[in-house]
Specification:
alpha+beta, 8% strand, 370 residues, 15 helices, four-stranded mixed beta sheet, two-stranded antiparallel ribbon
Length: 370
């Protein structure tokens, strides 16, 4: 039986190690959490655990055994394998870069091989069979999302008092998903809406002035301005990204204010229906999105396919490069990724030549490491 290593303890140790390392830049909490998950998975495959001072820890000697590790992860798909290798490179680097240099170099070379293989797959960027089943017209999707859920929450919003029932909060959360992922008001982001906190503009300004926006996601709703601040998302540490401010359109801001007024916990954009004092998890929103889509559209559409639908629809409208760059920014990604990953081609539709993808953006929306 695999020894238990508490997620919180493991994350704290990794963050502390990264903070004190000169060899690797500090990562945001979501990335560290992804590393933890990848390391656990690899360690489970090769039983890389040892006892140290009565505590179960990772066996870094085994994790540095390239033949053992590469054989163990060979059966998984290339994008997942690349995520495992990223975690191994990062952790072995700050653990002891000199000692594990041969292993780090081999893992980096394999990561590059995987990256090129993924690039080949993206050059044939047609819909998969699963995406074909999930696919629907963007205009129809927008109408379904908003109209259906507005009817479901009409009585809740008209009461104007905070929710006390689980079912009502679940309905309200579905409505939020429809507003933010249906594409009517904003391009759909990844799953970082799960931990958005509602804060006052004064607190936001204080955090901004003291450079403390990184690592958290916020929503600010005032009579004069409404926007999201994203400091915890997949590519936040990549060059040219950082904390993002995304303005909220007036009509959407009005709806979000009404939701905030009746929410079981107005501190969070998406409180857990079974525990109002906590927000839903990233895995939770990953499950909630297709469930919500099934209710309103009769199709179980995941977050990545929603991003594919939105991008493909917009690109077919022959929008300008500036508009494409704006959409990429709002989605927390790059224009190159929009063009080569999210813009899909139907069968028999000509596919243009593709340039090499940016390494920071590879597989950014895969369900395994988003």
């Amino acid at each position: 039986m695999t020894p238990l290593i508490k997620q919180r303890d493991l994350m704290e140790k990794l963050i502390t190690a990264m903070d004190g390392s000169k060899n690797i830049k500090v990562r945001c909490p979501s990335t560290v959490k992804s590393y933890c998950k990848s390391l656990r998975t690899v360690a489970n495959k090769i039983d890389a655990y040892v006892k140290e001072d009565d505590e179960t820890v990772f066996d870094y000697i085994k994790l540095g055994d390239t033949k053992l590790v590469l054989d163990a992860i060979k059966p998984v798909k290339k994008s997942t394998q690349k995520s495992y290798l990223e975690a191994l490179v990062a952790v072995l680097t700050f653990q002891d870069q000199k000692l594990y240099k041969p292993s780090i170099d081999i893992y980096r070379k394999q990561k590059e091989v995987d990256r090129k293989e993924i690039d080949k797959q993206y050059k044939n960027n047609v819909l998969s069979d699963k995406q074909m089943c999930e696919w629907m017209d963007s205009d129809e999707l927008q109408k379904c999302c908003v109209n259906y859920f507005e009817k479901q929450v009409k009585d809740i919003l008209e009461k104007g008092t905070p929710i006390t029932k689980k079912l009502d909060q679940a309905k309200l959360n579905n409505y939020v998903i429809g507003l933010l992922y249906g594409g009517q008001y904003l391009p759909p982001r990844r799953r970082e809406y799960n931990n958005v906190k509602n804060i006052k503009i004064k607190l936001y300004n204080d955090l901004k002035e003291n450079n403390k926006l990184m690592g958290d996601n916020y929503m600010i709703l005032t009579s004069k301005q409404a926007f999201f601040s994203f400091g915890d998302y997949k590519t936040v540490n990549a060059k040219g990204y950082g904390v993002q401010r995304i303005d909220i359109p007036p009509e959407l801001a009005t709806k979000l204010k009404a939701i905030k007024k009746v929410s079981g916990n107005s501190e969070f954009l998406l409180p857990r229906p079974d525990k109002f004092e906590a927000h839903i998890s990233k895995n939770g929103i990953g499950k909630l999105i297709p469930c919500a889509m099934m209710k309103c559209c009769k199709k179980s559409i995941c977050s990545q396919t929603l991003r594919n639908i939105y991008t493909t629809y917009k690109f077919k409208q022959m929008i300008s490069t500036n508009d494409k760059e704006r959409i990429a920014f709002q989605m927390g990604t790059s224009l190159k990724e929009l063009e080569q990953v999210y813009n899909k081609y139907m069968k028999n539709e000509p596919i243009p030549e593709s340039e090499e993808l940016l390494d920071d953006d590879y597989n950014s929306d895969s369900e395994t490491d988003e």
